[in-house]
């Protein structure tokens, strides 16, 4: 009995020892792997702007388990980075890569970033055209211009938008680079109003013409997006309005014109054809879209008393909604005073006026019978 009770205890003790040994081996292997792959890298201790000379205070040494990239290696010694000029903005905590630095001997500032065959060109920006002030030195943008052009067969101008430059590097924002600005908002709280772009020499006149004749807008690209399309991207106001008109026509198939906005799209269509069609066609199109006017009100005058010249008789002007309606809008008392003024409102006080013969009146018999109602035009 005692031997049978000892066997489970021995087995449990043995399994516990095996578990402890397995755990210790796992921890030892993990520590060994960490020691083998850990290496030193140089990191940015603070945000570093583009085109500035890097100092020791901007850097720090750190350990990492990440393997270096073969295409863009990082630096392991502070001495290899100190004194170099940053080619782009470097965020705090980022490892310093070779692509982030300009070539050795490059001076700081914008002139050091201008490669042979390129020119630095400034353009005006605001919150909308400058990507909500998110553009920073070192970013890549497309340049879009919006301008009005004359049409040869019409007096109207057409607005177009076109991509004139693709993948242009931003050299500086605002009044300058080198720590004076971070993004489009300067360190002093001032909002920058310009961007300096590095443009190929052959495209400089194109950019100047676009900035002079129209409005330049920047569209930000990704750092890794290096595609340059041969296709010409252009948008025209006439094509945009025509597309809107087609959308409205499709909507009218399932909705009433008043709800779908068909009248507005028809009006836009007549505007688009203003230089091609006649003014009569445009006027007819607009008239068809307007609702018919309501029928005019109808008034009649009832007079009581003598019709002899030089007398004044009591009268009432009764106004109906229209000639075919029995709904009375108003009843106004007054005097019948002659053909030049068949009805005058009731005078206040003793305001005597020279009476005139009364004509086009309704006799007392008509009032009693309600027949032969004779309207008098005002």
Instruction: Tally the structural domains.
Output: 5
Q: Quaternary state, please?
A: single chain
Q: What is the alpha-carbon Rg in Å?
A: 44 Å
Number of helices: 7
Overall geometric form = elongated
- Mean of the pLDDT scores? 74
- Residue stretches low in confidence (pLDDT < 50, at least 5 long) are 176-188, 256-265, 275-279, 349-378
- Give the strand tally: 14
Task: Please estimate the helix content.
Answer: 10-25%
**Straight-line N-to-C gap:** 133 Å
Secondary-structure element string: HEEEEEEEEHEEHHHHEEEEH
Q: Into which percentage range does the β-strand content fall?
A: 15-25%
> Sheet with the most strands?
6 strands, antiparallel
Overall SS class: alpha+beta
What does this structure look like?
The N and C termini lie far apart (133 Å). This protein folds into 5 domains: 1-37; 38-108, Antifreeze-like/N-acetylneuraminic acid synthase C-terminal domain (Type Iii Antifreeze Protein Isoform Hplc 12, Alpha-Beta Complex); 118-232, no CATH class; 237-289, no CATH class; 298-369, no CATH class. Strand 12 and strand 13 (328-336) form a beta hairpin. The strands form 4 sheets. Strands 3, 4, 5, 8, 9 and 10 form a 6-stranded antiparallel beta sheet that branches. It has helices at 2-37, 204-213, 237-252, 257-260, 262-272, 279-289, 364-369; strands at residues 39-44, 59-64, 118-124, 140-150, 157-173, 181-182, 185-186, 194-200, 215-221, 234-236, 298-304, 313-320, 328-336, 344-345. The radius of gyration is 44 Å and the shape is elongated. Helices cover 25% and strands 25% of the residues. By secondary structure, it is of the alpha+beta class. It has 7 helices and 14 strands.
């Amino acid at each position: 009995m005692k031997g049978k009770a000892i066997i489970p205890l021995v087995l449990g003790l043995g399994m516990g020892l095996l578990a402890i040994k397995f755990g210790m081996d796992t921890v030892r292997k993990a520590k060994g792997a960490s020691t083998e792959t850990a290496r030193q890298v140089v990191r940015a201790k603070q945000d570093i702007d583009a085109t500035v000379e890097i100092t020791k205070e901007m850097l720090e040494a750190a350990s990492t388990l990440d393997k270096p990239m073969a295409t863009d290696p990082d630096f392991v010694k502070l001495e290899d980075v100190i004194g170099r000029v940053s080619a782009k903005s470097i965020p705090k905590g980022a490892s310093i890569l070779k692509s982030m630095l300009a070539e050795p001997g490059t001076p700081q500032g914008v002139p050091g970033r201008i490669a042979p065959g390129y020119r630095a060109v400034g353009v005006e920006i605001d919150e909308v055209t400058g990507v909500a002030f998110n553009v920073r030195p070192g970013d890549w943008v497309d340049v879009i211009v919006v301008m009005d052009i004359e049409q040869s067969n019409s007096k109207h101008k057409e607005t177009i938008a076109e991509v004139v430059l693709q993948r242009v590097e931003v050299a500086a924002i605002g009044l300058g680079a080198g720590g004076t600005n971070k993004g489009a908002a300067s360190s002093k709280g001032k909002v920058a109003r310009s961007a300096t772009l590095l443009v190929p020499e052959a495209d400089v006149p194109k950019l100047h013409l676009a900035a002079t004749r129209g409005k330049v807008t920047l569209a930000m690209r990704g750092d890794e997006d290096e595609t340059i399309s041969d296709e010409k991207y252009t948008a025209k106001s006439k094509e945009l309005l025509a597309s809107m008109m087609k959308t409205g026509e499709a909507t009218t198939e399932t909705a009433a014109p008043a709800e779908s906005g068909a009248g507005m799209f028809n009006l836009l269509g007549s505007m688009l054809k203003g230089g091609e069609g006649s003014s009569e066609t445009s006027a007819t199109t607009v008239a068809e879209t307007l609702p018919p006017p309501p029928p005019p009100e109808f008034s009649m005058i009832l007079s009581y008393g003598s019709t002899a010249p030089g007398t004044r008789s009591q009268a009432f002007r009764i106004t109906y909604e229209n000639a075919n309606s029995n709904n009375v809008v108003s009843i106004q008392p007054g005097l019948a005073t002659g053909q030049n003024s068949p009805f005058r409102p009731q005078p206040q006080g003793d305001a005597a006026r020279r009476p005139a013969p009364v004509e086009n009146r309704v006799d007392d018999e008509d009032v009693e019978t309600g027949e032969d109602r004779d309207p008098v035009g005002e």
